[in-house]
Amino acid sequence: DQQVKQNSPSLSVQEGRISILNCDYTNSMFDYFLWYKKYPAEGPTFLISISSIKDKNEDGRFTVFLNKSAKHLSLHIVPSQPGDSAVYFCAAPDGGATNKLIFGTGTLLAVQP
Amino acid sequence: ETGVTQTPRHLVMGMTNKKSLKCEQHLGHNAMYWYKQSAKKPLELMFVYNFKEQTENNSVPSRFSPECPNSSHLFLHLHTLQPEDSALYLCASSQGQGSQPQHFGDGTRLSIL
To answer: What does the alpha-carbon distance between residue B55 and residue A2 come to, in Å, rounded to a whole number?
Structure first.
């Protein structure tokens, strides 16, 4: 059973508009979430994170929102740029002995010029 | 220079071959990880090493054998692999485990004939 879900495999957005990438989780014990970005032929790179004591974390054009009651988080990119086109993964440490990261399946974002 | 370097970038091998994947991190981290990424699946954690000690083996078949001689180097020895083992194998490192962001290499694309 997937504990971290990204239900949209792809998203297409016009340059300059807002991109909203969604992620749902099932384990209410998760208390920290990370977003990674992955270009083709490269490894994922850490983008932004949020602790469950917050409901928002902002870093430049990137903002992550956390709704604990809905077990939902979203990544907002505004304004979107063509260089943002990549696969975005959300992840959460599982809280176990090694606190390993549980990843979603990713959402491919295409920003159209 | 990237912080985490993986070699080779691409590998094609027969099912009876023995090969090794190499990962080196230049970030002074003490935790290293092997992940497998198959098409349309989430990143799957395979192994975790913390200060050279294996702390997680995520039910990985014995045809995959990890080795961590020191905190900067991680190997994945492969023998008698199956076609379903064809995937992208990613190495990552972090300062400590859990909530610390992991830094990924660009991966080895493995194809089993």
So the answer is: 22
